[in-house]
Structures are given as C-alpha cells and as structure tokens.
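Help needed: design a sequence for this.
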C-alpha cells in the first residue's frame, strides 16, 4: 500500500509541474507528503489519484494547495538575538570595508509577506541613518507565493503582526492608516518585491547580505547544495564577512564548508569562502635554462607525460600532441600540422578555440573544471581543461599548451562523500524540520483562530452594509420614479408649447425667422421659405448672416445688435431684395428681442414683409 501511495504521490507532483509549472521535486518527500495529505484530510479524499482528479475539476484548489505547501510564517525581528548580533557584529564591519557611498545590496529570499525585508530595512536605516539608507541601499525581496508578494508590496500590517516591534520603532517606521500599520513610503521605495524560485531562477548578484531564513529546510540535500551554490555565486566576498549569509535557526550548513564558514554558528551567520586562484601552469616551451639545452630530454618528458597535452601554434595549427593525447582523442600522426578547427578535439569535449583565444587575449592560464565527456557505451569521464598561453619574451603569443587532467575519480569520490554526508544530514534535518513544523503548526492554528474571528466580524459588517445599501437603493428608485414623472410632464408641456409656437409662426402671413444670440437660425416659417426659396431644414442651425438669399443679410447686423444688447425693444429697416422668383422687391424687416422666462434676451425675432407699391 505504501508503494502505491508513493507512486500516486509522484504522479501528483508530475501533474502539478506539467499543469502549473511548480516543481516540488526538490522538497523533502516526508514533509511534502504530510502537507499534501492535510489537504486530502480536509476534503475527505482517500488517495492521491482521487485528489489529482479533484484538481482537474476544481481549479481554485490549486491556490489552496500551494498555500498549504508554501507556508508563510514570519514576523518582524524573528529571533531577536540573531538580528542583534547581525546588527552589532557583522553589518558595521561589512560597511567599513566598502568604499564610502558605494551601494549596499541585500536579498531576502523567501520573504513571505515582507516582514523580514522590512526588518532588514529598519536595521540598515538605524545603522546608516535615513539619508544614507535612501541613497545607498537596495533590498530585493523575493518569493514564489504571489499572494504573499502582493501583501508585502502593500506594506500594511495588523496590530498583531507588528507586536514584536518596540513602540519607538513602530512609531518611527510605521504610519497608522485605518487601523493598520503601514511602513514609511520614503523608506519603502528601497525594497523591491518580485517572484524568484531559488531552485530554478537566476540569483540576484553582487550582494553584500543574503537573508534566507528557514527556507532551505523544505528542500532535500541535493537541492540545498544547488541553491547554496547559487547563493555563493550571488554574494560578494573577501572571506572576512563581505558576503554574509544569514539563515534560520533550523539550518546548519555543516556539510558545506567549501562554500561558507560560520561567523557565529549559534545565530546561523556565515561568510562566503573565496576559493584561492589557481597557479598558472608553466608553459611547455622554456626560453632559457638547463632544459632548453637538452631538447631530447624535453621531448621525451612531454611525450611520456601521463597528462594528455597538445600544443597549438599562433596560426591555430595543431603542432604537438603527446602519446596520451593521441590515444585519448584518437589523433592520427597525419593530423599534426592540420588546422585545429578541422579536428574533432577542437569542439569535443569542449570548444577549445574560444578558450585559446581567451588565454591569448588575457595573457593568463584559463581553466575549465569538470568538463563531462561521454563515450558511446554510456561511460562518463570528467576532465579539467587547462589552456596556458605560450609567450615569446613574455609578451608575444606564439601558441598555447592545452592539458587534459582526468578528475573522474575525484568527481566520483566527491559524489560518494556528498551522498554519505546527505544521509548523515538527513536525520538531523528531519529532526530540525519536525521542530520547526511543530512551531509552525502552532502559529498556523493561532493565525487560523484569529482569521476566523476576523471573518465573522467582517461577515456581520457586510450584512449590515448590504441592508443599508438595500434601503438606499429602494429610496433611490423612488426618487428616480418621481424624477421620471416630472420629466414626462415637462416633456409634454414642452411639446405642447413647441406645437403652439410653430402653429403661430406658420399662421403668420409674413416671413418669420428666430435666431439665437450667435445669430444661428432656430425657426424659419413657411412664408420665409416662400420668400427666399430655402426650406426650414436647410437653414436650421446655420448662421443667418452666412445665408445666400436675396436679402442683404449683412445689413441686418445693425438692426439685431441693439435688440440683443437691450438698447432697443424694436428695430425696423427697409432693404432692397430679390425674392426666390428673381423679382426685385422692397423688404420691410422688423426686429424684436426673444426674451426667456428669466427676462434674459436669448435672441431676436425677425418679421419680413414685402412692401406693396
């Protein structure tokens, strides 16, 4: 039964990676299975196969599952003694060794909801001062949980979440907004949140401090080694603390002495180990000395050397290959004198031409370690490839010597040692993990109780708000009905007035034109149509003075202006005109103001009548 459960669990992990891109292969199986089993128990599902089918149907379950696996339990200044040691003993020395004013780069890996990142900000602000902190510090806070990152970006925390902070720090670094504590915005800009999977994504580089607390404990030994290798690359380092790794109390690093050494093991503070630079190999061709006086001795030493070596001249031609090199890489005597680019050894097991060019350009020995070489039968060999430039008079490159050092046995021994160390470490890790998980479970239970209380209060408040909204909506609907009734009544009145006004104008025997203050035509009766040959719909909204009719409309300006300005209540003028039939007439135009209900002059009414002879 256990074997079936394990197979079903592995199938579930493969499904999660394929469907959602989350690879949990590096997590400890026992811990991971226990957390997934918790979801099965909550849902009443009996097997991992059934749970996989459940996930395919219920997409929202993915979020709940990942929240269960990726537990975000943290607080401000968690383990205060460790933070105090870091602030007093490590960071000041680290800052002293940096050039004045140079940037300070910090990475909080697995930052959860951001408390750890803001703890770093508070610590550095107290050491550098606010001005120095804002000018020099960049804090990169990363996690794989998007919900936690969103909370961290808001920088808003409840009173329960900030209870670890001293009152003076709380007052100095937080603003109280709507009952929540928000980190100061001017200092918040130095903290950059982003998604980063420490197992897969590229690390942030050139770091002075890397904080990753109680995150490695969720991974197995092999994955931890890979992550620590990335951390080692990401950190600056001089072996004295300039490149500090700060872990949680559940993590030890006892088996990674080649990467980090403890500064204070009790508080899990480690310094990056800077590997010593390799000594450059002595070129094969010496420019003077006893060896150069005995060419035969030199040639025999080169030919019988147990280390495969070849020599390539400055033109890229294979000049020499000793016996071991000819056997190892199947080099034929006829290949000597041929361009290196035409031979298989130029690109297998590694691209040699680029290494040779780098050695010539930089005038130093270039080493590529643990290069993998596979044979057709499946056997694997590991080689250290060392390319040493051959310089004439110490300046002009005349070629390069390439040595292939077989390190297969050393690599295999390292793997065996690593596996043995992992087995020893696993027992300690499981115990540490159990302690941490017990503490985490207690914190989760407490957090769940608080969330339930908050949820109940929020639901009650929501119900009250909904009742109030319903009452407001009912009142609004009644108001809208009243407004609609008023609008309908007024529309009927307006239609009645428009009909009445149109009937009056249509009944007039004289041409009637109504214009607004901009002299745009508002109304144009039938008599005006008959006189000037333009229909009402052709002149509606157009400027009267721009109309091309037989009446000299430009001369009406002096009649209309006094009526609009209130200087006169009636103006008359007699104009020579031509009606629509082409007959010359004398047109008598009377102008009176159009007065609205507010006694304001909104335009004029022009009455046009042909004067009888």
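Sure. Designed sequence:
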């Amino acid at each position: 039964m256990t074997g079936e459960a394990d197979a079903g669990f592995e199938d579930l992990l493969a499904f999660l990676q394929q469907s959602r891109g989350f690879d949990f292969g590096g997590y400890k199986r026992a811990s991971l299975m226990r957390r997934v089993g918790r979801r099965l128990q909550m849902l009443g599902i009996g097997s991992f196969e059934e749970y996989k089918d459940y996930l395919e149907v219920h997409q929202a379950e993915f979020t709940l599952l990942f929240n269960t696996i990726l537990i975000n339990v943290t607080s401000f200044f968690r383990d205060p003694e460790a933070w105090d040691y870091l602030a007093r003993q490590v960071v000041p020395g680290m800052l002293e060794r940096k050039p004045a004013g140079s940037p300070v780069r910090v990475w909080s890996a697995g930052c959860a909801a951001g408390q750890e990142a803001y703890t770093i900000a508070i610590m550095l602000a107290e050491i550098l001062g606010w001005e120095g902190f804002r000018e020099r510090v960049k804090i990169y806070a990363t996690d794989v949980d998007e919900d936690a990152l969103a909370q961290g970006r808001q920088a808003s925390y409840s009173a329960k979440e900030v209870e670890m902070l001293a009152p003076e720090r709380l007052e100095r670094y937080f603003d109280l907004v709507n009952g929540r504590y928000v980190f100061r915005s001017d200092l918040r800009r130095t903290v950059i949140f982003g998604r980063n999977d420490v197992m897969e994504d590229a690390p942030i580089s050139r770091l002075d401090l890397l904080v990753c607390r109680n995150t490695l404990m969720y991974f197995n030994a092999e994955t931890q080694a890979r992550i620590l290798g990335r951390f080692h690359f990401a950190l600056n380092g001089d072996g004295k603390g300039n490149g500090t790794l700060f872990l949680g109390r559940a993590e030890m690093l006892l088996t990674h002495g080649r990467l980090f050494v403890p500064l204070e093991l009790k508080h899990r503070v480690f310094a990056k180990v800077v590997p010593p630079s390799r000594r450059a190999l002595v070129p094969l061709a010496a420019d003077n000395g006893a060896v150069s006086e005995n060419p035969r001795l030199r040639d025999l030493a080169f030919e019988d050397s147990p280390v495969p070596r070849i020599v390539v001249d400055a033109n890229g031609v294979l000049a020499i290959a000793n016996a071991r090199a000819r056997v190892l890489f199947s080099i034929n005597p006829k290949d000597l004198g041929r361009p290196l680019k035409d031979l298989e050894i130029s690109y297998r097991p590694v691209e040699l031409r680029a290494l040779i060019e780098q050695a010539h350009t930089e005038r130093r020995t270039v080493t590529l370690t643990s290069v993998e070489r596979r044979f057709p039968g499946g056997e694997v060999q590991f080689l250290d490839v060392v390319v040493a430039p051959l310089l004439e008079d110490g300046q002009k490159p005349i070629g390069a010597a390439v040595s292939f050092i077989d390190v297969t046995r050393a690599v295999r021994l390292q793997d065996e040692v690593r596996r043995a160390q992992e087995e020893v470490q696993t027992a300690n890790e499981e115990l540490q993990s159990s302690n941490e998980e017990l503490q985490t479970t207690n914190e989760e239970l407490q957090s769940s109780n608080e969330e339930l209380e908050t949820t109940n209060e929020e639901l009650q408040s929501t119900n009250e708000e909904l009742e109030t909204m319903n009452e407001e909506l009912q009142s609004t609907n009644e108001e809208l009905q009243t407004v609609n009734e008023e609008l309908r009544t007024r529309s009927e009145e307006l239609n009645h007035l428009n009909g009445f006004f149109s009937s009056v104008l249509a009944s007039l025997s004289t041409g009637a034109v109504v214009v607004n203050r901009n002299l745009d035509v508002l109304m144009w009766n039938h008599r005006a149509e008959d006189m000037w040959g333009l229909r009402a719909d052709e002149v509606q909204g157009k400027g009267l003075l721009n109309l091309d009719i037989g009446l000299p409309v430009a001369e009406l300006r002096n009649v209309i202006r006094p009526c609009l300005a209130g200087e006169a209540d009636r103006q008359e003028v007699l104009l020579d005109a031509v009606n629509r039939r082409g007959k010359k007439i004398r047109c008598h135009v009377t102008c009176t103001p159009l007065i609205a209900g507010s006694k304001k002059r909104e335009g004029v009414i022009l009455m046009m009548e042909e004067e009888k002879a």
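The radius of gyration is 45 Å.
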